[in-house]
């Protein structure tokens, strides 16, 4: 049974900071947000986790394998190197959506995202190493079948982008509503989803749902592991089988 | 009349690179993609342009003020510092969508995104400095009214994310279809759109369309300028007026 | 007794890469070298180690607390994100210089720094966690007494730089020859040295030696710990006592 | 005749910031310093200049081709993305050392490096585009003859480092005292020097001086140009001739 550890990463007081004393250059905000995300991706990724950029001022991570001390070090390191600080909420559960809801509540209870006095809150509980199991995380890696041939080399770049976004928006809502799962677009034509224990049938349904709703054809590789990297890497390999064999769903067990 | 210069930035042969000889660690791909985008944001932004991460392997930029020599330098600098290379197509026009379509065609004609032998193609034409005018670029900066109060401090972080995505997906399609405009989510609850000459009425329609379709309330500040930074900065200031006065649409002229 | 774990980090085939097919833009080489160093500093630093930029194509790190698996992950991550790769040699010993000599030999035996076929060699042994002790690392943090008042606010910036370099060159040779220690300039007027078990008298001698030889007045804080961060942080606090009390040598035990 | 434009880049109030409220993690300071330098290298380098890391809290740049407006943009961009700010002094002259002295004075007059209230001072004058000539900058690129064969593949990495530092310290003093030149170690076994109009004989003397004083054998390529990149690139090519032909001094005119 899955036991997903989810961390909500929220920049403190970001909205006001971006316009105080005057609005800041957009290109600089984009640079800073992206590099902050990239650093968190290295920190979390080097410990077996995945972090998703989401809205950049609020990022969502699957952090099985990271302790509360690790979370504290991340905060300290960002404080030493950026003009902003982070608040972190950590929670676990069978349902990824429930774990994220709990993590969010921990941060909300500490104060508003635009509360000038809420800085670097750190709340929650991490799974102890001794309690980690090889089933804790289930990751599904979806991509669009032959995106390059069907879209990238054919349509203008924005219409390709619209198609990918349709596929993502549809999958995101379906997986959250039907399966308590969290879906993230990660670039190209790839969507990574952290799920509870789902079956091959659940993934086939998801693919058909998206195809029927918005006419975007997905395939998916699914993996399980002790942490997001292990599960996600198995999912990548399963997806390679889809690509090689022309199948729509491949699970790694 | 607008004369938008649009550049399509496409990483060469990226799909195959990410899985050769084996799939690469996802966290590292995220880090590299984000830092590459951040660097392009600095390069383009320091010359008055805006670049949007879009799909990360394909990025779209408004590059009024950048010459073809500037584009060539960007390619050279990335080649010296990253394990990937970029192909660039540059085109201009009254319609941002048309300009992007032309830029895309230039790159597609040079070869597929996964063509091993297509590297660092650079094609197109930039607007000469002498021909730049203060009307060339129109930027609209939308955000969700009181996102912090209505969503961030209330819902779990993924459900907030879903709401913002709905608003974006709806606005993106409407602005492209009805107004030949290119819309980009830039973090938080912000969407930046590059438009041809639109009226206040056009923006009011867009806002009502999104509210009716997905129940997400937007406000917008609009600016014009010789380049994306000038237009975008004016748009940011106009948006501050919306926030202060409670209006839904503010234009900077 | 100290047991310093030292890692030599050497970029593979770097000299030839910088001029193939043509010499590369110097500013890009500087950017890449610095960012590669910064990433290694985060990776090593987040695990309690210190890495020093040294010559940038060859970097020296005190890596107590990092396992061989950690070193392998660092190589993999750099391979995924940079146009160059790293070879690593790891060795331990009472004498930091001897440990570095052993680490260097491991890499040299695998092949020349400009051997096209030597890539990502990883050799050596790390201290097992169970064998770490609070005495393993001794770090001394030197700085120039009142550098700002005596130099930075008085001389032109290059003459200040020359003075700091004199102090560094003299200290570096003395500490290596007399005390088997490795000294690194880390910016500003700061030099960090990894030492075997030295006494307060040894540090007083070092300070007097530098003052007599090049007329640069240093003070020093010294700390011990299980890893470089612990020892170095204690050293920083000891140095603050020098600054507050006007003493020349403060040890943290 | 040379007309070198030199900029002193000084981080405001850095010493106090690194220890307030407590000393900050050394690895984070190293990361931030290096990334700040890398960003300045991109900004300055993309406009034809060179910046040298020097002491990291004080950096020296050859900025022919950058206007005062460019310098102001650099300050603004750093302010938007880092927890520190920069003060800049800009001056020009036949003598690089004199230009640097003037640039330093401009910053010192605005306030101490540790003056809490001195922030983002910007003073000086840039060379107007119309007045730039192909002789303005002379760059010499020195390296150690066969460093890899003689040192890197033979000695332990610190003893190689000591040898390179000896060569640098000696060259640095000689070039400043005898020739009003500014010398900077840039990694590997490379030293880049910005000079006034020197002759081949001056470079031969410099090489013999260093060989006699510290037994380190250097070779040098020299170039001239309108800016540091043009001059430095010509110098790199001249150095390649030294490497190919076994000569000690090659000038590009």
TrEMBL record, chains A, B, C, D:
Enzyme class (EC, first level): hydrolase
Enzyme Commission number, as recorded: 3.5.4.29
One Gene Ontology term of the molecular function aspect: GTP binding
Pfam families in alphabetical order: GCH_III (PF05165)
Keywords recorded for this protein, A-Z: GTP-binding, Hydrolase, Nucleotide-binding
Superkingdom per UniProt: Archaea
Catalytic activity, reaction form: GTP + 3 H2O = 2-amino-5-formylamino-6-(5-phospho-D-ribosylamino)pyrimidin-4(3H)-one + 2 phosphate + 2 H(+)
Presence of keyword Glycosyltransferase: no
Database matches in HAMAP family: GTP_cyclohydro_3
Family classification: Belongs to the archaeal-type GTP cyclohydrolase family.
Descriptive protein name: GTP cyclohydrolase III
Organism: Natrialba asiatica (strain ATCC 700177 / DSM 12278 / JCM 9576 / FERM P-10747 / NBRC 102637 / 172P1)
Gene behind this protein: gch3
């Amino acid at each position: 049974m899955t036991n997903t550890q989810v961390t909500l990463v929220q920049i403190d007081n970001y909205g006001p900071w971006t316009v105080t004393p005057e609005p800041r250059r957009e290109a600089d905000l984009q640079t800073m947000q992206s590099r902050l995300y990239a650093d968190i991706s290295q920190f979390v990724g080097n410990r077996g986790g995945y972090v998703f950029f989401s809205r950049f001022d609020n990022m969502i991570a699957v952090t099985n394998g990271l302790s509360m001390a690790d979370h504290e070090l991340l905060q300290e390191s960002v404080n030493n190197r950026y003009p902003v600080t982070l608040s972190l909420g950590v929670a676990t559960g069978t349902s990824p959506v429930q774990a994220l809801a709990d993590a969010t509540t921990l941060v909300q209870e500490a104060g508003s995202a635009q509360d000038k006095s809420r800085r670097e809150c750190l709340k929650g509980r991490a799974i102890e190493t001794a309690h980690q199991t090889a089933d804790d995380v289930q990751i599904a890696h979806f991509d669009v079948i032959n995106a390059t041939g069907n879209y990238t080399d054919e349509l203008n770049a924005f219409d390709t982008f619209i198609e990918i976004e349709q596929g993502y928006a549809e999958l995101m809502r379906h997986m959250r509503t039907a399966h308590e799962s969290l879906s993230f677009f990660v670039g190209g034509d790839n969507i990574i989803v952290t799920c509870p224990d789902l079956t091959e049938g659940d993934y086939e349904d998801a693919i058909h749902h998206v195809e029927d709703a918005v006419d975007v054809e997905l395939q998916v590789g699914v993996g399980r592991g002790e942490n997001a990297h292990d599960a996600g890497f198995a999912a990548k390999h399963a997806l390679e089988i889809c690509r090689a064999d022309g199948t729509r769903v491949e699970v790694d067990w």
